[in-house]
Amino acid sequence: MNFCINEFSNSKIREFLQMNLNTNSLSDRREEILVRCKNKNLILYSDNGCTRCKLVFSDSSVKYKRQGEAVLNSKIFLSLLENLKAYKEINFEKLENSLLRVSSKKFECNLIPLVSKLPEEDEFSLQDYEKITLPFDILLAVNTKFKDFYKSFSSTAFQKKSILRSINLRKASASEELQVLLTDSYRILLARFSPESSKSMFELSLQPEILNSIVTLFREQFETKEIDLYVGNEHLVVSTEYLIFKTKLQTGSYPNLIELFDFEESINFSINKNLLISAIERNLLLSPQNTLFTTYKIVENNLILEFRDSAKGSVREELEISKARGGDTQFALNSSLLRQLLKNIGDQEIIFSLTESFKPILLFGREEGKYFKQLILPLKYS
């Protein structure tokens, strides 16, 4: 096997390898990549038990010299390409002693290929799959808005396998609205869109890492276009001429959390985002581990943050708010979780809407609230 890649193909291969590493945590962690030269094409194939992906180069970005194949460790392969990304050309040659020589200018590295063999390449037949067409910018917006939120998810096995750890996309038959939900059992994110291209009803749940992989792999081709998602047999497939991505969908019944967003508010107030975030950070000074909660009191046109610890002391700060509805009340929140939700909102003016102290609190930006809203569950206080 002998081939040469340029800066463009290097970039695409790195995206492919990063996808493999990002989704390995969802499966058996097979950090293996099949590299094959065949019929004047360079083919990269991965199968980690959760996702299967095939990347094909048949253009001038790869110089094909001799056929052959090797299985490489994706972490080592990615690290190597990252450190050589400034080089215009990188040559790969499988030697007679089975080593894979990677060279560019005066650099040379001899890799020992893995002896394991990946499963046979999937033909990725789309027969019996239902096609769902969505504007790519919807997937991009959801991924951008949700990615910081799901980075904080627990890495426990329960959270990894939980249906509630997935992003749920749902479109009812009688509705023009696409609803997208994500929750960690303490907070819920909701996005609402009205895609003209999607007429049929559907519901699917996929892990955040999968959505991020789709956006990363297909962004260059579909960023200003619509993308076709093929769903069937508990799998999702995205296919183009040179790149095919197949993944398992999350199965199970996703709860109808959308109902929690529909309530008759009794209290509504707004506050500057940066002022509140700064106050929260000062309030957390006595609780670096964020194991306790902060009491939030609304007194006339003021929001009072109070934190007390019998061993460390107390912190109290008063902020001015603009109250649109309701009287005085108080509630308790994990301020660390609230701070992250606030940072996830693009607007400077944040609106809080609630009914009672122990019921979910809705917060959203003045402008962003048309499309994105968030719920946080209050805590009991004494």
Automatic annotation (TrEMBL):
Example of a GO biological process term: DNA strand elongation involved in DNA replication
Main EC class the enzyme belongs to: transferase
Q: Which UniProt keywords apply?
A: Cytoplasm, DNA replication, DNA-binding, DNA-directed DNA polymerase, Nucleotidyltransferase, Transferase
Q: Which EC number(s) are documented for this chain?
A: 2.7.7.7
Chief localisation class: cytoplasm
One Pfam family, short name please? DNA_pol3_beta_3
Q: Does the keyword Lipid metabolism apply?
A: no
| Any GO CC annotation of this UniProt entry | cytoplasm
Subunit organization: Forms a ring-shaped head-to-tail homodimer around DNA which binds and tethers DNA polymerases and other proteins to the DNA. The DNA replisome complex has a single clamp-loading complex (3 tau and 1 each of delta, delta', psi and chi subunits) which binds 3 Pol III cores (1 core on the leading strand and 2 on the lagging strand) each with a beta sliding clamp dimer. Additional proteins in the replisome are other copies of gamma, psi and chi, Ssb, DNA helicase and RNA primase.
Function recorded in the entry: Confers DNA tethering and processivity to DNA polymerases and other proteins. Acts as a clamp, forming a ring around DNA (a reaction catalyzed by the clamp-loading complex) which diffuses in an ATP-independent manner freely and bidirectionally along dsDNA. Initially characterized for its ability to contact the catalytic subunit of DNA polymerase III (Pol III), a complex, multichain enzyme responsible for most of the replicative synthesis in bacteria; Pol III exhibits 3'-5' exonuclease proofreading activity.
**Which PANTHER family does this chain map to?**
BETA SLIDING CLAMP, DNA POLYMERASE III SUBUNIT BETA
Q: What is this protein called?
A: DNA polymerase III subunit beta
